[in-house]
Amino acid sequence: MDPAADAKRIVRKGYDAVSHAYRADDAALAFPYDRFLEHLTPLLRAGDRVLDLGCGCGVPMARELAQSCDVTGVDFSAVQIERARALVPTASFVCADMASVDLPAASFDAIVSCYALIHVPLEEHRAIFSRVHTWLRPGGHALLVVGSQTWSGVEDYLGAPMFWSHEGTETNLRWIEEAGLTVLTHEFIPEGDVGHTMVLARRPQA
Predict the structure, then answer these.
(1) Where do the H-state alpha helices sit in the chain?
(2) Angstrom distance (rounded) from CA 30 to CA 33
(3) Which of 156, 129, 136, 157 is nearest to 204 (CA)?
(4) What is the pLDDT of residues 91-116, one digit of tens each?
(5) Judging by beta carbons within 10 Å of its beta carbon (0-12, 13-18, 19+), is residue 161 exposed, middle or buried?
(6) Domains of the chain with bracketed CATH
């Protein structure tokens, strides 16, 4: 089997299996998601179109953003999407791979992707950053949670195998800029002994 396809199969089956263990239906808005929204919501207006890449079950990001914005979520775990449709009925959800989903160019005011890119095979990251640039309207913003150090592998996660693949902060920042986005700020988000990097970027005005 193709290594990338095998990695995606592991992630899809993994989140199908651990969806409820990973996030409860009534999960509260807590760190770091409240921190992400502190950066993003001041940049949004009521009715803005927001894309949540790797939206999971829709809680908490899609749920919070859908209170004032037109939210579309994409995730390729069928279980996660089924839950998202029930938990966030005011948003729209698509069960698809973020690396191949077909979305209109320049159609979103903001794109968020929290802890999802880190499960995508590394060779697809740069193309996804380019897709984010394409999907954003000029002047639109992207809030992306990416790796803070280089690592790829499979480990047990909540009782199921899970695949991770990510580069370090500086490489991610360079790839995001090379995709045509302007990095506005980035911040280390701790998680136990390790952590991830939150990046806020903007597609320049035409």
Answers:
(1) 3-22, 33-40, 61-65, 78-87, 125-135, 169-178
(2) 6
(3) 136
(4) 999 999 999 999 999 999 999 999 99
(5) middle
(6) 26-152+165-202 (3.40.50.150)
In this predicted model, what pLDDT tens digit does every residue of 139-182 receive, in sequence order? 999 999 999 999 999 999 999 999 999 999 999 999 999 999 99
Single-letter amino acid code for the residue at 110? A
Can you tell me whether residue 46 is helix, strand or coil? coil
Contact status, residue 143 vs residue 200, Cβ threshold 8 Å: yes
Q: In the structure encoding, which two tokens stand for residue 32, read together? A: 């770091």
pTM of the model: 0.97
Q: CA 4, CA 122: separation in Å to the nearest integer?
A: 9
Q: How far apart are CA 165 and CA 169, in angstroms?
A: 13
